[in-house]
Design brief:
The complex is a heterodimer of chains A (about 190) and B (about 400).
Chain A (H helix, E strand, L loop, with lengths): L1 E5 L3 H11 L6 E5 L5 H8 L3 E5 L5 H11 L6 E3 L6 H10 L1 E6 L4 H49 L3 H15 L3 H15 L4
Parallel strand pairs in A: 1-2, 1-3
Antiparallel strand pairs in A: 3-5, 4-5
Helix pairs in contact in A: 1-5, 4-5, 5-6, 5-7, 6-7
Chain B lengths: L2 E7 L6 H8 L2 H4 L2 E7 L3 H9 L5 E5 H8 L9 E10 L1 E6 H7 L8 H17 L5 E4 L5 H12 L9 E4 L5 H7 L4 E5 L2 H7 L3 E6 L8 E8 H6 L1 H18 L5 H8 L9 H8 L2 E2 L8 E2 L4 E2 L10 H14 L6 H8 L4 H8 L21 E4 L4 E4 L15 H7 L2
The chains are: A alpha/beta (about 190), B alpha/beta (about 400).
Chain lengths: ~190, ~400
């Protein structure tokens, strides 16, 4: 069985590819280039096409499938299999699947389930990364706010931090939010940006 | 406590009303917490709508009808209580083709440029390389208007030329690389092609049908029934946004809001031109003012006329090789929901048309039509070939199409 994974994110495509390898008879093709995409698909003649929801080629791909229905080997959308729950799960995970007409649902289902799980795993990784970046950004903001308070109020670093924390507790906000406000106010007062 | 409503959209100028309804507080004033979800393809906008990620979507009107009729996927009835804008698209030709068929940097006469294009199309086909045009989606007004115009000029789409799907953000690239010779696309993408010097705008789709419906706000029919109150408040908020949007004093601010990274993430200058109906047709030329380019708010532009849904159905039948079925026509007509639009705006002082259908293309000049209170003046709504579409004679209209 030939499976095409269209994904501009190489990292994600690799994660999905690794998972699909578990299916012994699967031949996997990763397409991350935008150019000549449809020509490549026509050449490969896949049984299943997986594409991420954020991929700008989706409308072009669907048009190709719509036209190919008139051809010898029509590609149906997975939605034709009327397995609504599986489709909803894949949309939630951010992947959409297209399957050649006539491929039986019991063969497709485990593959799609796996792709969905891999997409979810990737999304979790990305979120963790984004959170880590966010934390780093927050720490930098707090440091800037401390420096501003130290310069302007002639406070020591512990004093500046204690003041930020006191304000945060009084106003029931996070220290990072108070620090952000200090930085913004400072920029406004000094005519920055 | 305001009610949350999530709307999916593509980064196009005609997504302006939900964006402005949120940003200018019109939605909030109606008790709505409006959230917007941006995507890059219609397929994803539609998937999110069908699988409940969004409550409503900025959608191609023909796609709403095709989805309701089960074209391409199992039928899912959609409801459109609001038209997000009329026209706003243009036909841009690759520079070499524009030189051959319309060398002037003014908007073309659709019949004259069509005749020149027919000749060029024949020559290119004889040379073994048919002209190729890009459209944004097979179920789009872009596709229907382009085909309507070509066919009216004696060019058979799919035979004399090819029409392919190109995602709007890549249309300038596709023109540059020679993958396509022309495109029918919405703003800002024509202007992007012009600014890059790879093409020239020769026609606005408004020249093909002066009052052509383009995008709608669509809900799943069942979801609209569940969220009727919120949908009516949204209609009111978007009418407020529309009134603000058409005020020339607000253009710059509107362009600045739309250009933000969360929305169109583009050039406020180019977006501002589309809003002002000021199009730069060729690189280095002065903008040309064409007031019907994208038509908003006035003349009940947001009213979902049943007759417009029926015209779109006539084109779906025509270009997908289907035959007329009264049940399909009824399902297509039922997508447009003037009843919701009226209920939402009753008592607000907004002018509401008395009828839900009209003979499309019959107006050559201003006409006052009956409104529920007072009257609305409609100006020209003609098709470029002078034909008219009478929704009561739908079957005959379809039969007469070649």
């Amino acid at each position: 069985m030939k499976i095409v994974v269209i994904d501009e994110s190489r990292a994600r495509a690799t994660i999905i590819e690794d998972g699909l390898r578990a299916f012994g008879d699967a031949e996997i093709f990763i397409l991350s280039e935008r150019s000549a995409l449809i020509a490549r698909i026509a050449e490969i003649e896949p049984d299943i096409v997986l594409i991420d929801l954020g991929n700008p080629a989706r409308d072009v791909l669907e048009e190709y499938f719509a036209v190919s229905r008139a051809l010898a080997r029509p590609i149906a959308m997975f939605v034709d299999e009327s397995d609504d729950e599986a489709i909803a799960a894949s949309i939630d995970a951010g992947v959409s699947a297209y399957v050649v007409a006539g491929l039986s649902a019991p063969r497709i289902r485990p593959l799609l389930d796996l792709a969905v799980r891999r997409f979810q795993a990737f999304a979790r990784l990305e979120q963790e990364l984004a959170e880590a970046r966010g934390q780093l950004h927050e720490r930098e903001t707090i440091d800037r706010a401390k420096r501003i308070l130290m310069n302007e109020r002639r406070w020591s670093e512990p004093e500046a931090y204690a003041e930020l924390r006191r304000k945060a507790m009084d106003s029931n906000r996070r220290i990072a939010a108070i620090a952000e406000a200090v930085v913004t106010a400072h920029e406004l007062m000094n005519g920055m940006r | 406590m305001s009610e949350r409503l999530t709307i999916g959209f593509l980064p196009l100028v005609d997504a302006c009303l939900p964006i402005l309804a949120r940003e200018l507080g019109f939605a909030e004033a109606e008790g709505l917490d409006l959230r917007l979800t941006r995507d890059v393809t219609w397929a994803t906008v539609l998937d999110r709508l069908l699988y409940g990620h969004t409550d409503a979507a900025h959608l191609l009107a023909p796609l709403a009808i095709a989805t309701s009729l089960g074209r391409g996927r199992p039928a899912q009835p959609l409801s459109a209580p609001f038209v997000l804008g009329l026209n706003g698209n243009a036909i841009t030709l690759r520079t070499d083709l524009a030189d051959a068929v319309w060398p002037q940097a003014i908007l073309a006469d659709p019949v004259a440029v069509g005749a020149a294009l027919a000749e060029e199309a024949r020559a290119r086909a004889a040379a073994g390389r048919r002209l190729r045009f890009g459209v944004v989606h097979r179920h789009s007004s872009h596709n229907y208007m382009l085909r309507y115009w070509l066919a009216g000029c004696g060019i058979r789409p799919d035979e004399d030329i090819e029409i392919v799907t190109v995602a709007p953000p890549f249309s300038a690239d596709a023109l540059a690389s020679g993958e396509i010779d022309g495109t029918c696309v919405g703003e800002p993408w024509n202007s992007v092609a012009v600014d890059r010097g790879v093409g020239r705008i020769v026609l606005a789709t408004a020249q093909i049908w002066r009052r052509g419906v383009d995008k709608v706000l669509a809900f799943k029919q069942s979801h609209l029934a569940d969220r009727q109150g919120a949908s009516e408040r949204l209609v009111r908020a978007m009418r407020q946004a529309g009134k603000w949007f058409v005020d020339p004093d607000n253009r710059q601010e509107a362009a600045a809001i739309l250009a933000r990274p969360d929305y169109l993430d583009g050039s406020a200058d180019i977006i501002g031109r589309a809003i002002a109906d000021q199009m730069v047709l060729a690189l280095g030329t002065e903008p040309l003012f064409y007031p019907d380019f994208m038509f908003q708010y006035n003349e009940a532009a947001n009213f979902p006329w049943i007759s417009q849904a029926m015209w779109l159905y006539s084109q779906l039948v025509r270009w997908e090789g289907l035959s007329y079925h009264p049940a399909d026509a009824a399902r297509a007509a039922a997508v447009f929901r003037p009843d919701i639009y009226r209920r939402a705006l009753a008592g607000t002082g907004d002018l509401l048309p008395g009828a839900s259908s009209k003979v499309e293309g019959s107006l050559r000049g201003p006409l006052a039509v009956g409104a529920q209170q007072g009257e609305i003046t409609l100006t020209a709504d003609s098709f470029f070939d002078g034909r008219i579409f009478d929704p009561d004679r739908l079957q005959a209209y379809i039969a007469a199409q070649t």
